[in-house]
Amino acid sequence: MFATLGRFAGRRRRWIMVGTLVLVAFSAVWGTGVFSRLGGGAGFDDPGSPSAHADRVLAGPLGRHANDLVVLYESDRLTVDDPAFSGPVQRALESVPRDDVTRLDSYWSTGSPGFVAKDRHATYVTVQLRSADDQERVQQLRRIQGDFAAEGLTVRFGGTTAMTDQVNRMTLRDLAIAEAVSIPVLLILLIVIFRSVRAAAIPLIIGITAALGSLALLRFVTFFTDISTFAIQVVTILGLGLAIDYALLAVTRFREELSAGATVEAAVERTMATAGRTIVFSGAVVAVSFSGLTLFPSRFLLSMGYAGAGTVIVAVLASLTVLPAILTSMGTRLKTARSRTADPLAGRWYRVAHAVMRRPLRNTVGIVVVLAALGLPFLGVNWARPGDWVLPPSADARVVTQELAARFAADPGKLLTAVVESPGPADLATLDAYAARLDAVPGVEGAAVTGAAGRQARITLGYSMDPMSRDARRMVEDLRAVPAPAGGTASFTGMPASRVDIVNMVTSRMPWMALFAAVVSFAVLFLAFGSVVLPLKSVVLNLLSLAAAFGAIKLIFQDGLLDGLLGLQAVGAVDVNFPVLIVAIAFGLAMDYEVFLLSRVREEYDRTGDVAEATAVGLQRTAHVITSAALLVAIVVGGFALSGIVFMKMAGIGLVVAVAVDAVVVRGLLVPATMRLLGRWAWWAPGPLARWWRRYGTAGPAIPGSGASTGRLDSRPART
């Protein structure tokens, strides 16, 4: 089938090229319109959580009581008592339009000394915006932000809405910077890898085609569901990364076939019959990894699932159609560089494989112990949800939080809201008694009834600790343990409460996602290789590379390891969404490389029947493809490590570590050792499954001129 597809694409290459140009032009115009259709917020919350329920109630007649925006005014030489300070501030506040504002409180409107810094050189203003929707509040802020300017004073914007706005703006800016840095570096590295400008251009063409095509697909999806702003990052990483991987694999195989004396047409057919088949199975595994994200109800993770799976589909389709058309068009001009794989027996990776396989048990145990040890620090992780801590230290929202903690009696943004729903009309005495019990919870600093409507009431609570700390989690758990008024229920919302709910959502569903990805990957790999042993081995080895990445992230971002070298500032926590994304992307890429390697090992094993030799030759034939692909992916995701947004740094550094460990340590060392230990058991399946696979499975076709054949799988392993 794949050979037929290659032959068809070669013969219809002009039509395919024209159609691709039209698609790319359309995607560049219409597809990039997706940026205007993405949500103003990230959508981290679980819509079925208690905090989300409280938010929905507060969006009704009861109304909210929150400080969405904290505007900080400060001066080095003036105090709030000086007319040169108070005058400009009061004039600015009077000029703020009230259409988007429900409440605006200041030192001058309340007379409260809590609004003034201890040194009296700063004051803040609290603003509650009218909308109950976080995305709409960002737009309301942007409309009125300029009106807060006060001549001669420094003005900074903090609070949840300002933080969300600053993260959104910085994310799009950093995305542009990452692409501007990574694409030129990618082109240079591709030229070095292929030793040919023509060959180097092919992966980049496929990558750009896949990325732009994915944007068009993502915009189509926005007509049916809300998509998070951060989905664009997945499209960029996968669109370029996977397409480059696939093109690298196909171009390398095409060159091999040309070097073996095949005609251009025959080389394309053989390339698609082998590399094309590998691409399809690889893409299926990666798509499965991302489809597992749809098990999570948050808009952020759902968006990542839709974007990731869609991008994989586009990358595979481009690789199966556009790629063979380009290969046919360029033909023997791609044969200009010296083949690196002409003599696999003389290759470095061939020698490494045999060296590892001479003592397979010792090497397997040693590598597994090292990787497991690298992952041990992750057992002490402190989970958090995104907040102002994800911004760089110089960002307004983060500076405001630090200034409020250091110079003021309290942070007005640190509020929790309890929504009480009673079977009958709200009773003020009962509510006051309940508020008093809440106020007695350790960590709570004041609780008061601030509103009532029918059977619903609102209690506002203050707190002082870091909302991402373990103390804050205990406070929320203690508050929820306080019995609600008789016959009623109480729901809590606010940063600490939503953090607890998001962490609970992710940690409770993460095992199911992992199980889903493992089971479906097992099925796909069985279809590819006809073995029940290889899929199990692949899942275990992939978990080891992920463990190493998780351990590194915990040490770097929570504990502050390498702060000076990386220019970071430890935040004492790890974003709970991080491991989900890393599992989806890194697990998919690891399976990508596994399919690349084992497909070639299987070809050699079918030809020779010698497991050790097949493994060594397969590694030599694919190692430079895998390591080059890993390097190029690391360049793409490494651009995000330059971001000022901490969780983008987290994802970038985590993926670089996971990809590097997987490509070099796992594929280059651990796979040969385990393959030697397993011997022909690696290809084993129970008799009924082996017979089913021989009849209905997707065994690689016999490749004329390559010596490959199929059908060596047996339910009983032979001696090695």
Automatic annotation (TrEMBL):
<feature type="transmembrane region" description="Helical">
    <location>
        <begin position="365"/>
        <end position="384"/>
    </location>
</feature>
<dbReference type="GO" id="GO:0005886">
    <property type="term" value="C:plasma membrane"/>
</dbReference>
<feature type="transmembrane region" description="Helical">
    <location>
        <begin position="629"/>
        <end position="647"/>
    </location>
</feature>
<feature type="transmembrane region" description="Helical">
    <location>
        <begin position="175"/>
        <end position="194"/>
    </location>
</feature>
<feature type="transmembrane region" description="Helical">
    <location>
        <begin position="653"/>
        <end position="670"/>
    </location>
</feature>
<feature type="transmembrane region" description="Helical">
    <location>
        <begin position="230"/>
        <end position="249"/>
    </location>
</feature>
<dbReference type="InterPro" id="IPR000731">
    <property type="entry name" value="SSD"/>
</dbReference>
<protein>
    <submittedName>
        <fullName>Membrane protein</fullName>
    </submittedName>
</protein>
<feature type="transmembrane region" description="Helical">
    <location>
        <begin position="512"/>
        <end position="532"/>
    </location>
</feature>
<feature type="transmembrane region" description="Helical">
    <location>
        <begin position="539"/>
        <end position="557"/>
    </location>
</feature>
<feature type="transmembrane region" description="Helical">
    <location>
        <begin position="201"/>
        <end position="224"/>
    </location>
</feature>
<keyword id="KW-0472">Membrane</keyword>
<dbReference type="InterPro" id="IPR050545">
    <property type="entry name" value="Mycobact_MmpL"/>
</dbReference>
<comment type="similarity">
    <text>Belongs to the resistance-nodulation-cell division (RND) (TC 2.A.6) family. MmpL subfamily.</text>
</comment>
<feature type="domain" description="SSD">
    <location>
        <begin position="204"/>
        <end position="329"/>
    </location>
</feature>
<dbReference type="Pfam" id="PF03176">
    <property type="entry name" value="MMPL"/>
</dbReference>
<keyword id="KW-1003">Cell membrane</keyword>
<keyword id="KW-1133">Transmembrane helix</keyword>
<dbReference type="InterPro" id="IPR004869">
    <property type="entry name" value="MMPL_dom"/>
</dbReference>
<feature type="transmembrane region" description="Helical">
    <location>
        <begin position="306"/>
        <end position="330"/>
    </location>
</feature>
<keyword id="KW-0812">Transmembrane</keyword>
<feature type="transmembrane region" description="Helical">
    <location>
        <begin position="577"/>
        <end position="598"/>
    </location>
</feature>
<feature type="transmembrane region" description="Helical">
    <location>
        <begin position="279"/>
        <end position="300"/>
    </location>
</feature>
